[in-house]
Amino acid sequence: MPASGAKSGFIPCNSCGGFIFKLALQCEGFDFVRCTQCGLVQRNPQPVKEEIIERYSKTFGDDYLKYELENEAAFLKLQQLALQDAGFDKIEKNAFLRAENAPSVLDIGCATGALLAYLRDRGWRVTGVEISPGAVYAQKERGLDVRNIPLEEINFPQESFDVILASHLVEHLNDPRSFFTELNRILKKDGYIFITTPNISGFQALIFGGRWRSAIFDHLYLFSKRTLLKMLKSCGFKPEGVYTWGGLAAGLAPAFVKKTADFLAKRLGFGDVMIVRAGKAVHCNN
Questions:
Q1: Residue 189 needs a FRET pair 20 to 30 A away by CA distance; which of 58, 103, 149, 213 works?
Q2: How far is residue 286 from each of residues 17, 179, 180, 256, measured CA to CA in Å?
Q3: What is the C-alpha separation between 194 and 177, in angstroms, rounded?
Q4: Contact indicator for 192, 91 with CB cutoff of 8 Å
Q5: Is the pTM of the predicted complex or chain greater than 0.85?
Q6: Which pLDDT score, from 0 to 100, does residue 8 have?
Q7: In this structure, are strands 146-147 and 125-129 parallel, antiparallel, or unpaired?
C-alpha cells in the first residue's frame, strides 16, 4: 500500500515480466510480493519514479544529508571492507596496469562522496551520481564531479568507465533491469561492476520476515543471490563472486553470539547484505 497521497502503479515482474505474484513479506502498511515465475521480490504496486526522486531530492533531502554526514565514517569503512571482500584490490591493480592514464570509476548513489574522495586519493579519475542534497555537498566540500540527476538522464558515452560502484542503491529503483542495461552500456569491455544490496536469502530475513530491517517502505525490490545474479546475467554481465556479511544486527544478542553469527554468515554465505562482482560478458540487447 503506498503512502497517503502517493501515486502508484501495478507493474509486471521487473526480471521476467510475469504478472502472477504471491505475498512474500507483510509489513506495517505495505507488502512485498514474490513473482511465482522467477522468485523476484518487489513492492507491487509501488510509488512511481517521479515521487521517488522527489522524496530523496526534496521532501526528505536534508534529513538524508544529515544522516549520511553523521554516519559517513562508519559507512565508508563498511564500503571499504565490502570492496576488499569482493576482490577490488586486484581489480584496481589490473586497472592501473592497463590504463594509459588513470582508470575511471563511477559511484552511483555516492551520497556525500566519501568513497569517491578516498578513491581519488588512490589515483582514480572519479565521477559520481547522486540525486539527494549530498551531491551539492560532494561538489562544494570535496570538489568532486557529482551529477545531481538520475543516471539515465546523463547519457554518459558508451564504454566510459573501468569500474562502476552502486552501494545500497538498486533496491530503491523502480526499474533495476533498465539500470543494469545502462551499466552494461557505459562499462568498458574489460570493466567490472560492484553491486551491494540487502540479501533476502540471508539469515536475518528468514528469521524476521516482515520485521526484517531491510523490509522498509523505501525499498522497492529485495534481491536474493539467485534473483540478482539472474538479472545481471540477462543484462550481459558475468558474475564472478557473491560475498555476504552480517549474521545478527547489533543489540539482538550478546556480543559473543553476534560474533559467532557474523562469522558463520560470512563464511557460509547467508549474511544480511551482499556484494556482487561482475565483469562484462556481452552487450545487453534489451
A1: 149
A2: 13, 11, 10, 48
A3: 15
A4: yes
A5: yes
A6: 59
A7: parallel
CA 149 to chain centre: 17
Amino acid in position 27: C
125: phi then psi, degrees, rounded to nearest 5? -85, 120
- Enumerate residues 6+ apart whose C-beta is below 8 A from 275: 82, 83, 85, 86, 194, 195, 196, 242, 243, 244
pLDDT at 48 over 80: yes
Domain ranges of the chain: 8-280
Encode pLDDT of 93-137 as tens digits: 999 998 888 999 999 999 999 999 999 999 999 999 999 999 999
C-alpha cell of residue 219: 525499498
Among 238, 233, 222, CA closest to 274: 222
Q: Determine the pLDDT at residue 4.
A: 36
pLDDT of 284 over the 60 cut: no
Question: Can you tell me the distance from the alpha carbon of 124 to that of 102, in angstroms, rounded to the nearest whole number?
Answer: 6
Pick from 16-30, 49-63, 147-161: least confident: 49-63
User: Among positive and negative, which fits the CA dihedral 65, 71, 72, 78?
Assistant: negative
Alpha carbon 30 to chain centroid distance? 22
Q: Which fold has domain 8-280?
A: Rossmann fold (3.40.50)
